[in-house]
Design brief:
Blueprint (H helix, E strand, L loop, with lengths): L1 E8 L4 H13 L3 E7 L13 E7 L7 H16 L1 E8 L14 H9 L6 E6 L1 E3 L5 H14 L8 E3 L3 H13 L1
Parallel strand pairs: 1-2, 1-3, 3-4, 4-5
Antiparallel strand pairs: 6-7
Length: 174
């Protein structure tokens, strides 16, 4: 049975939701394990056939623990059949929804010593009712500037699940 390690750097949970979806789409003949990469790793990447990392953007940045993880495990990631995706709200807009057009992916590639063989970017979700006052205010300001949803009572999911399906197909081929 194939084993896949699903690592996440998630803040609000949409990245975990996408990884759970990927696990389901990989099929019942694939054993998937979901691990928070912000916690000390208790498994070896070498024990898995594939590795998929999902990371979310928060206020324009990936979590520094993602970069620390990559620095510590770069050689293993390069040996593994590793895939990587970034989740952000900017990707809700056409033309900003690919690794080649995402400012966040470009920034990642400049900062990271690891260049994932398989990469993508997906739109995330807005969870206004779940945010504290400061986060809700800041995200509303960002959404005003970018022409997005500002109603503080709404939760809006922007993830394009067909794009995630295409990513899964690439993972299966890889």
């Amino acid at each position: 049975m194939e084993r896949v390690l699903l690592l996440h750097s998630s803040r609000e949970g949409q990245t975990i939701k996408i990884l759970d979806y990927i696990a389901t789409k990989l099929g019942s003949d694939v054993q998937c394990e979901l691990v928070d990469l912000h916690q000390p790793l208790t498994v070896s990447l070498a024990d898995y056939d594939r590795v998929v990392i999902g990371a979310s953007i928060r206020y324009g940045h990936l979590n520094k623990k993602l970069y620390q993880f990559i620095a510590k495990h770069q050689i293993a990631l390069e040996k593994a059949k590793a895939a990587f995706f970034i989740v952000n709200l900017t990707a809700r807009k056409e033309g900003k929804d690919t690794p080649e057009t995402s400012v966040y992916f470009k920034k990642f590639l400049l900062k990271s010593p690891w260049v994932p063989a398989l990469q993508d970017t997906f739109a995330g979700a807005l969870f206004y009712p779940r945010y504290n006052f400061f986060d809700r205010f800041m995200i509303q300001l960002i959404m005003i500037m970018t022409g997005g949803e500002t109603d503080p009572t709404k939760e809006v999911e922007y993830t394009n699940w067909q794009r995630v399906d295409q990513f899964v197909d690439k993972i299966k081929l890889g």
